[in-house]
Design brief:
The complex is a heterodimer of chains A (284) and B (347).
Chain A (H helix, E strand, L loop, with lengths): L2 H6 L9 H22 L1 H29 L11 H33 L2 H7 L6 H28 L8 H28 L3 H6 L2 H5 L15 H9 L2 H13 L6 H25 L6
Chain B lengths: L9 H4 L18 H4 L8 E10 L2 E11 L4 E5 L6 H8 L7 E6 L8 H7 E4 L11 H11 L4 H14 L15 H13 L5 E5 L7 H16 L3 E6 L2 H7 L2 E6 L2 E6 L1 H6 L5 E5 L3 H10 L2 E5 L4 E5 L4 H13 L6 E5 L3 H8 L6
Parallel strand pairs in B: 3-7, 3-8, 5-6, 6-7
Antiparallel strand pairs in B: 1-2, 1-4, 8-9, 10-12, 10-13, 11-12
The chains are: A mainly alpha (284), B alpha/beta (347).
Chain lengths: 284, 347
């Protein structure tokens, strides 16, 4: 069934129009998902811990050496060493926090789909999209909390952003957009997974891609083939945009490329997820 | 299946065979004779319902009619198609063919109108394990767009009615099977549905919880709710339903009142066990046995467990001075219904 037939099934007889139905149901589902996060904090902690561990590992273990090797990517006003690397790697850790949280979302969605309550929603006059909207908005809130924690930790280990208010807002905007793109993608992965285990494994590439971007080392230090991949994969422009907004490096056309990637992935993943959710469930 | 209001003339329209063990039970000819009766519009009706999953045909053209305010049961073993039938009737799945009306609405055209009229308790627990019992119920109240105060009152009423008030603050995942089932049904009732579907409502429950669930179902019907339930147990159908349809391999092989169905079943018999071969021989000469097993020293006799039957039997044995070691009355169960109605080997 398409969204339209679902919608047209809503008659005004209830005294509430379709749009507010969708809104009310989405809010109810959001509250349900937030309660899940609150009752099952270990998943949130796990996905938050991963970027924190990487931050500490890269700054304290590799940072001294890597920082000295930074060439063109060195943030403005910092010269070499561990502190330079902390500043360099911070945007990548933020991006990684988004990817890690989205992995948690894929797991949560896959797990939820195995619950009988979803079958119940399908036989109730509930606006279909509200279930997914609840997941995505809850995930976005969870992600922003994670990003805040990671950013504060980065500052704690020597990251010194010097963005003005407008740049901070722009950076938050980019992170939010990235969050919606990756989260919808992971909702799709969670819905298409045959099991919760699959759902926890399939978004792994999202954790790997930041390593192959400009986030950890400048792309011009990479061998040719890898450099080509690195320059064109979506995490590089997002990284460069965040780095530029937060530490004042050159942004160039990276902002536009980032927006195109994020909006493209978000729209396609949204359509894919809706289709997966609205297809006829399997028997049993 | 047609479930006319009690006391209607349906039994006459489709009389049970006088012979308790028809060699070839009448094929299901559901509904048509009764549909034309001057009953009000049925709460549930389905004609020619078909559903296949891949190459496997799960429902092969079934007809169902459930008049408003009655309980009917779909009786059948695992894999007969009971759950699929419920899925089709409740808009969870779409039929490959067939026409459905639920409370006057066509799910193919207006699924949301059907969903607003029905309540469904599936076979597998449909509660949110992370939420408490009360939160699960409030979730339902919110989704039904009940005003906060009304929702709260209904939730507390249901918690009290289902004896869940004490556990209302605990996560549903920690509930026992029986409590989950009750919470599940309570959630179904929050929206005050006119038509309720219960898929194996007591499977997996202990005997006490089963009795409690039966009481709840009867009370709902007494309030005028239409109920279609599925079960694997003849006893349950017998206890609860006005009419029963027996489903086997996607077809309805018989339908009628529980009494009508049981009359068709030859499975009821009496089994006598003797101490030795001589006693068995002696008994076999005076009784019309339907089966004999020399190894276990048992005789089987046709008959039910009525006191009169047993008294006559024991008197016969006494008169012939035959000692019986044990006597067992075997009442018809679902296997017997099945074997009898589908013409397979008797129990």
């Amino acid at each position: 069934m398409t969204a339209m037939t679902t919608m047209s099934g809503m008659t005004p007889a209830d005294g509430v129009d379709t749009r507010s139905h969708a809104w009310i149901h989405a809010r109810i589902m959001l509250r349900r998902n937030l309660r899940h996060l609150q009752r099952y904090p270990s998943l949130t902690l796990m996905v938050m811990l991963m970027p924190l561990v990487f931050l500490l590992l890269f700054v304290y273990v590799f940072g001294g050496t890597l920082g000295s090797g930074l060439g063109s990517g060195t943030p403005v006003g910092v010269h070499g060493g561990r502190q330079a690397y902390a500043a360099y790697v911070a945007p990548a850790i933020i991006v990684m926090a988004v990817a890690a949280a989205a992995q948690g979302t894929a797991i949560a969605v896959a797990q939820d789909m195995t619950e009988g309550i979803i079958a119940r929603f399908r036989t109730m006059a509930v606006v279909r999209s509200s279930v997914l909207t609840g997941h995505v908005v809850a995930a976005a809130i969870q992600t922003m909390v994670g990003v805040t924690v990671v950013t504060l930790a980065a500052i704690g280990v020597g990251f010194r952003p010097h963005a003005n208010v407008a740049e901070w807002f722009a950076a938050i905007g980019v992170v939010l957009l990235l969050t919606f793109a990756i989260t919808w993608l992971c909702v799709g992965l969670g819905l298409s997974a045959k099991s919760v285990e699959t759902a926890s494994n399939s978004p792994m590439f999202l954790m790997l891609l930041p390593f192959l971007s400009s986030g950890f080392v400048p792309t011009d230090s990479l061998p040719t083939g890898m450099r080509w991949f690195s320059e064109y994969e979506p995490f590089t422009p997002v990284n460069e945009t965040l780095r530029g907004l937060l530490t004042g490096t050159e942004i160039g056309d990276n902002l536009v490329i980032s927006l195109a990637w994020c909006i493209g992935v978000a729209v396609l993943s949204y359509a894919w997820s809706r289709r997966l959710y609205e297809r006829e469930p399997k028997a049993g | 299946m047609t479930i006319p209001p009690q006391n209607s003339a349906a039994a006459a329209a489709n009389p049970a065979p006088a012979n308790p063990a028809p060699a070839n039970p009448a094929p299901a000819n559901p509904a048509s004779a009764n549909l034309s009766a001057a009953n009000p519009a049925p709460a549930i009706s389905a004609r020619g319902l078909r559903k296949s999953f891949g190459a496997k045909t799960v429902l092969d053209g079934i007809d169902l009619t459930v008049p408003a305010g009655t309980i009917s049961a779909l009786l059948g073993p695992n894999g007969a198609g009971k759950t699929t039938a419920v899925h089709l009737l409740t808009t969870y799945l779409r039929p490959d063919a067939g026409d459905i009306r639920i409370a006057g609405h066509d799910p193919a055209k207006n699924p949301q109108a059907v969903r607003r009229a029905i309540g469904v308790t599936g076979q597998f627990s449909a509660v949110d394990g992370y939420l408490t019992g009360r939160e699960n119920l409030m979730l339902m109240a919110d989704l039904h767009l009940l005003p906060r105060a009304v929702g709260r009152r209904r939730v507390e009423d249901l918690l009290a009615r289902f004896e869940l008030t004490e556990a209302a603050g605990k996560a549903a995942a920690t509930y026992s099977g029986g409590m989950k089932r009750k919470l599940d049904l309570a959630m179904t009732l929050v929206g005050d549905p006119k038509v309720i579907f219960l898929d194996e409502p007591t499977t997996g429950l202990d005997p006490r919880s089963r009795r409690v669930m039966w009481g709840i179902i009867r009370a709902l019907a007494a309030e005028g709710t239409t109920i279609l339930l599925t079960t694997q147990y003849l006893e349950e159908a017998d206890q609860l339903a006005h009419r029963v349809a027996v489903l086997e391999e996607g077809r309805i092989v018989a339908e009628g009142t529980p009494a009508e169905l049981k009359k068709r079943i030859p499975g009821g018999h009496i089994e006598l066990t003797f101490a030795d071969r001589a006693e068995l021989e002696a008994a076999a000469t005076i009784l019309a046995s339907t089966g004999r097993d020399d190894d276990t020293l048992t005789l089987q006799l046709a008959g039910d467990g009525r006191i009169g039957t047993l008294r006559t039997l024991l008197r016969q044995l006494d008169d012939a001075s035959v000692e019986v070691e044990a006597l067992a009355v075997h009442t018809p169960d679902l296997d017997d219904v099945f074997f009898a109605l589908t013409g397979q080997k008797g129990a």
